[in-house]
Amino acid sequence: MAVRACGLIIYRRLQPAPSSKVTDSIEYLLLQTSYGTHHWTPPKGHVDPGEDDLQTAFRETQEEAGLQASQLNLIEGYKKELHYPVHGKPKTVVYWLAEMKDCNTEIKLSEEHQAFQWLKLEDACKYAEYEDMQAMLKEVHQFLCSRE
User: Fold this and answer.
1) pLDDT for 71-103, tens place per residue?
2) What are phi and psi of 139, to 5 degrees?
């Protein structure tokens, strides 16, 4: 049986410069783990007994980034499952997309993470070492661009 985890890809929109495209003002939140290879990911974690996937995504976001569900807008129409092995066992991670209501809201990290960054797409892809994570971030960006 695959390990199951859920999380949120969180983005914020900065005030765009008059000459720039709206999509240039989008930044994604990535957290750096304080364990293992110190990799960067969106907030995510394992599903607890009795929880549904979306509840897990919101709980983990609150635990890992200090963000309440009320501070986020869940974006309809985007949900992505990633499948990859961890220590030889299959893992499934389900991500939804959420926008910060206030782009200045403070991020409060748990002990699981040592740093966070708000990153434009190109930099977010550099920080996210895994190809499937990079592909998902690009897909999210295309999705957001198509809604403009």
Assistant:
1) 999 999 999 999 988 888 999 999 999 999 999
2) -65, -45
Tell me what the mean pLDDT of segment 108-134 comes to: 95
Tell which residue, 47, 120, 50, 119, has the closest CA to residue 58. Answer: 47
Q: Measured between alpha carbons, how far is residue 103 from residues 5, 11, 73, 107, 118 in Å?
A: 26, 9, 12, 10, 10
DSSP structure string for 29-75: EEEEESSTT--EE-SEEEPPTT--HHHHHHHHHHHHH---GGGEEEE
Summarised one tens digit per residue, pLDDT across range 12-43 is 998 766 655 655 789 999 999 998 889 999 99
The pair of structure tokens assigned to 127 is 């920080």
User: In whole angstroms, what separates CA 138 from the centre of its chain?
Assistant: 12
- Of the candidates 115, 112, 120, 116, the one whose C-alpha atom is nearest the C-alpha of residue 141 is 120
The pair of structure tokens assigned to 12 is 């914020």
